[in-house]
Amino acid sequence: MKTAIATVSISGDLKEKLAAIAAAGFDGVEIFENDFLAFDASPREVGQMVRDHGLEIVLFQPFRDFEGMPEPQRTRAFDRAERKFDLMQELGTDLVLICSNVSPISLGGIDRAADDFHALGERAAGRGIRIGYEALAWGRHVSDHRDAWEIVRRADHPNVGLILDSFHTLARKIDPETIRAVPGDKIFFVQLADAPRIDMDPLYWSRHFRNMPGEGDLDVSGFMRAVAATGYDRVVSLEIFNDQFRGGSARSISVDGHRSLVYLMDQVRRLEPDIRIPVPAMPDRQAVSGIEFVEFAASSEEAQHLAAMLHTLGFARAGRHVSKKVDLWRQGDINIVINTEPEGFAHSSYVMHGTNVCDIGVKVADAQAAVERARALGADPFEQPVGPGELNIPAIRGLGGSVLHFIDRSSDLARVWDIEFRPVGDDNRPQNAGLTRIDHLAQTMAFDQMLTWLLFYTSIFATRKTPMLDVVDPAGLVRSQAVENSDGSFRITLNGAENYRTLAGHFLMENFGSAVQHLAFETGDIFSTAAALSQNGFKPLTISPNYYDDLDARFGLEDAFLNDLMSHGILYDRDEQGGEYFQLYSPFYGEGFFFEIVERRGSYAGYGAANAQFRIAAQKRHMRAKGMPKR
Ligand SMILES: O=C(O)c1ccc(O)c(O)c1
Ligand SMILES: [Mg+2]
After folding, report:
1. What is the average pLDDT across 62-66?
2. Ligand 1 centroid to 99 CA: how many Å?
3. Three-state SS annotation for 539-599
4. 191 is in an annotated binding site
5. Which residues form the VOC domain (predicted)?
6. Alpha helices in 272-381 (DSSP H)
7. Four-point Cα dihedral 9, 15, 21, 27, nearest 10
8. How far apart are CA 188 and CA 180, in angstroms?
């Protein structure tokens, strides 16, 4: 099976598109007619340019409003088709997509359409051209692949076949299982696209909101399973109309596209073991079980400030690296590493971003397999020279140039702290605050990068995404979506800033790029944690009293309980089943980085979205009070 992508899916002129598509590893392209019309080179030159990139033109599209026309439009449609056949021969492609007629003057009738296709098939055959018929979800008479198939079946011509597009089928909630009834050799081409489930007119939804398989909410995998079951093994091609992608980086959108196809094929192969699906063998999505460590890059001076903050949070210094200027701070199962080496990766990260999280250790079932899978999906491996006494821990590049290390239980990697670190005493031990583990970490990025990282995490790790939420910042919207595993031991929230005036946007600007903006620690008892923190000199973020008044109105809380929340600056939320969530925030470290402490009780599975607006407003007040730039 070959992979391809439609030129309409990415930004740039035709030449830029082809370069990005080739670099991402696709075998072919669908030439979208307008991309060709807008480009000033002859069809022959364009065909050559495609082949010079090592690509093949697997489809020319779209040809509109063909079948079921009354005269004189019918004759015109046939003449128009002949002109496009000429063009296709110059380009060097033999397959054209005809999408179902949307013209108000077109006539219905399956036999009329079938007769038109038979006649066109005859003309195409003489020129070695094949015709594929696709049902648009908004076609005037044909909007269902089953009707398109019936027309193709009745057209009964070897040069006329069916084109399937996952969007049109799934958007209209047509059961993809119906595809299994179509003979594989009559399916000439398959286009794939996903989309977020939004209730809107299908044409508008299709032309603006499609995204890569796995990035949206449609069952593209179920669709592809049914296609594969027919024996279809020609091309799977991405046809993604998306406003954001049109304006994004052609390179990174192409890489995402290729990753989404490899991921999808790998999934389908696992679900349909009897079907031969030619995708390179790779380990399955890795089971994850939490965050083993978070490493900050800092200067010696800034490391002291960060350490002072960790101290107030109840962390004690627990180890020093055997050969490097790297300290380990620990509380419960939380390992925070501060790296102040004057060279190497952490140092470059510091020079680029200032103090920031440069490395995250993810607990996986099999570290080597995790790297193998990530590589098969096009992730960049990360390696740096291994110093004396150090372990070679498998790693890849993650968000914003940071690194993800993989730690498993089955090798020496499990003992990294004993092997690479010497224990040190902390003569100034703070009061332990009862923090047990990392509940989640929150990564901030530009909004248009969210899909990239969502796909990155969900394709490598056995995780799922939660629905996207809007978080209101006084200066604009921030979108938030989590990636988590099924038992909640691994949670990353992705926050996408739409402008630079929001708290998230300000962080992005000051940090020179995407990074972890906050770390949330878990406690089993938020009130005793709050008491211990206050003994350590911790000053929580101050929340408006108005918030607590509303909390009482919403939940009808006991006075004493409400007072406890208020006096410690704890935010509260409750779900429908009575599950509860408590949140306590630290002041900022630097230009917008902060810590959060959470307690989950019962079924609560969210992240306190209802509180986010009030927390952000409080943080902005705090920023102004500290004389940080007003945003
Ligand atoms: O939006 C459209 O018109 C359009 C055109 C061609 C396609 O293959 C398609 O899926 C949609
Ligand atoms: Mg299509």
Report:
1. 98
2. 7
3. CCCCCCHHHHHHHHHHHCCCHHHHHHHHHHCCEEEECCCCCEEEEEECCCECCCEEEEEEE
4. yes
5. 290-409, 437-587
6. 300-312, 345-353, 367-376
7. 110
8. 15
Q: How far apart are the first and last CA of the chain?
A: 52
Q: Is the pTM of this model over 0.90?
A: yes
Which two three-digit tokens encode residue 622? Answer: 């705090």
**Residue 631: per-residue pLDDT:** 42
Segment among 32-36, 200-204, 289-293, 381-385 with least mean pLDDT: 381-385
Residue to mutate (ligand 1; options 191, 206, 223; most atoms within 8 A of CB): 206
Distance CA 203, CA 191 (A): 16
d(CA 336, CA 319): 10
Task: For residues 133 and 114, give the distance between their C-alpha atoms in angstroms, rounded to a whole number.
Answer: 11
| Complex prediction ipTM | 0.99
Could you please state the CATH topology (level 3) that the domain comprising 288-423 is classified under. Answer: 2,3-Dihydroxybiphenyl 1,2-Dioxygenase; domain 1 (3.10.180)
| 387-442 per-position pLDDT tens digit | 888 889 999 999 999 999 999 988 888 889 999 999 998 888 999 999 999 999 99
- Per CATH, the architecture of 2-271 is what? Alpha-Beta Barrel (3.20)
pLDDT at 274: 83
Q: Over the chain, what is the mean pLDDT?
A: 95
82 is in an annotated binding site: no
193 C-alpha to ligand 2 centroid (Å) = 9
In this chain, the answer to whether the domains covering 2-271 and 288-423 adopt an identical fold is no
Every domain of the chain and the residues it spans: 2-271, 288-423, 435-622
* Cα angle value 19/261/446 (rounded, 5°): 70
CA distances from 377 to 282, 359, 398, 404, 455 (A): 9, 20, 13, 15, 10
Give the binding-site residues of ligand 1, using a 6 Å CB cut-off. 61-62, 97, 99, 134, 136, 165, 191, 206-207, 239
Distance CA 420, CA 293 (A): 14
CATH code of the domain occupying 435-622: 3.10.180.10
Q: Which residue's alpha carbon is at the smallest distance from atom 2 of ligand 1?
A: 207
CB 117 within 8 A of CB 131: yes
Which token pair is 324?
Answer: 């490097």
